[in-house]
Amino acid sequence: MTAGKDIDQWVTPEQLEVWRLLIRAQSRVLRRLEGDLLSKHDLPLAWYDVLVRLLEADDRRLRMSELAERVMLSPSGLTRLVDRMVEEGLLERTQAERDGRGFYAVLTDAGYERLREASGTHLRGVHDYVVGRFDDAELATLSQLLRRIDP
Question: A GO term (biological process) for this protein (predicted)?
């Protein structure tokens, strides 16, 4: 059996094209959003995501493990990112009171201000690059379809 035939039994060329379109669209949108945030606010998209997740959290803080899961980074990757954000004054790292073993990432006032300044740019990009290209019915369908992948 050739490699091509083995692949064809799992995914048709049309299905593979859908996969490639999905990956390409995601990559292009993320690059554009990142470019906008960097050029206008000197803020990487991953930092923006961390700031948003902390703003949404109770007391504007999350355990490092929970934050890593929410921003889809490895624990070590998040630790490095948080270290840089702490150096910039956007976050603080505090020890967990209950067990003393874990740590929290905490949004600072400076981090909140940086997020506030950048949010218009980010949301405008989300509109221009994604949601503004669909009508409400298409967005509802897209949401339903994507939830099948990530329920």
Answer: response to stress
